[in-house]
Structure formats: structure tokens, C-alpha cells
Amino acid sequence: MFIVFLLLIQLCYVVNAHNCLPEEECTVKSWREWENCSGNCKNITKQVRKRTICVDFEKVQPFTRENVVQFCNITVPTVETRPCQTCPVGIYNVISQKCEKCNYVNCRDDPCQQGTCNDTAYGIRCSCYPGYAGFDCGMMIPRDKTMTQYLLPLWMPPLEYGILTLTTLIIIMAAGCLCLKCCRLCGACSSDDDDDDDEERKRKKNKPFPYRSHGFRNTRKPSVVIDF
User: Which cysteine pairs are covalently linked by disulfides here (predicted)?
Assistant: First the structure.
């Protein structure tokens, strides 16, 4: 019987020296350590940890975890999963906490997230774009905000508005002059009209007009009448 339980321990993948006693049949032990991330080389999926279940394997055939859970009527979770660390071109090792590179990855798999890929005799090599780093160029380098922040002086916005207004007026005046030249060129208006207006203004300015002041009276006759 002791040999049977030793075999049971091996089949249940018992770690950390979990011991199953005869009276502990269908007993669920504590959680084991997290396993390495599972998935293909490019698309890492999940990380798994399990709990040890003590049971006589001769009573459960085929001897699988699902059948053991059903045989013992276990309702508590025995398997737990969680998303893996970001590792798009390898397997994430929970012990070293690093991505282990796959040997068969090449540039055709497009492994470099923010960079260009180069095939070498020792595998791939990603040349990252500025601001990115890492094995697959997936890590963004934080920038110092004080180095990239530029403040405009307070007088800059009013100056911009003034320049914009002046530019608009110049454009309007240029458009008006252009329209006037086109009008004269087409014959719709001529410079003679302006000369006639000037002559009319001069004639009105030189025209005599009657006035009366302190006994003086101006008439159309050239004579002057003085009253005492």
C-alpha cells in the first residue's frame, strides 16, 4: 500500500514534499508554485499553478485531474491561471524573470514591435526606434518632461494676433488695388472720371458767394455799398 501512495505522489506531481496519508484520500493540498508561461514562441498565453489532490489512482481510471475532481466531488478550485508577462518572442521564465529566446524565431515572424529586425547567425536582432528598448523593442523609455516642455512668452499670443490682422489688411488692400487695375483695363472705369471729379471740386471752391458782415454786402454787381 505504501508503494501505491508513492506512485500516487508522483502521478499527482506533488512538490515541496507534500505527503499523502491513507486517511487523506480526496484531500486537496495547498497551492504549488507558478509554472513557466505556456504558449507558442510568438503568442504567449497563460501561466498555471495547481493544487495537489491525494487519491488512490487505482480507483480512478483513466487517471486524470478531471476524473479525480469528479470522483472526489471537489468543488474548490484546483487549477489557477493568470496572464503571462509580456514576452512576444519567447517563453517567460518565472525564476529568472526574463524572456527566453526561441531558436526558431526569424524576422518573418515580425518580432520587433518598435524597430527593424535583422537575422544573424545567433538569432534575430532588433534595432529599436528612438525612445524604445528591450529584446523586442517593446519597452518605451520614459522621457524627462522638463527637457521636452517648452513655454512660450506671454507676449507671443498678442503678437501673433497682430501679425495675422496686419497680414489680412495687406491682402485686402492688395486685392482692392488689383480689382481697380482690372476694372480700368477692362474699360469699366477710367482715370477720366477722377479728373472730372477734381475739376468739379476746384470749380466749387473758386465760386464766389454772398456774405454780409458789419454793413458790408456782396452782390453780383462789382459796386460796393457802405452804410453809415
Answer: 107-117, 128-137
And the C-alpha cell for 28?
486537496
160-188 burial, b for 16+ CB within 10 Å, e for fewer? eeeeeeeeeeeeeeeeeeeeeeeeeeeee
Per DSSP, which regions of the chain are E strands?
27-31, 38-39, 44-54, 79-83, 90-93, 98-101, 115-120, 123-128, 132-133, 139-140, 212-213, 216-217
- The CATH superfamily of 103-143 is Laminin (2.10.25.10)
Residues of the chain with CATH 2.10.25.10: 103-143
Q: pLDDT digits over 18-62, tens only?
A: 577 877 888 888 888 888 766 655 555 677 888 888 887 778 888
Q: What pLDDT, in 10s, does the model give residues 1-29?
A: 433 333 343 444 433 335 778 778 888 88
Among residues 89, 97, 102, 83, the alpha carbon closest in space to that of 138 is found at: 89
Residue type, 80: E
How many angstroms separate the CA atoms of 55 and 68, rounded? Answer: 8
Whether pTM > 0.85 for this model: the answer is no
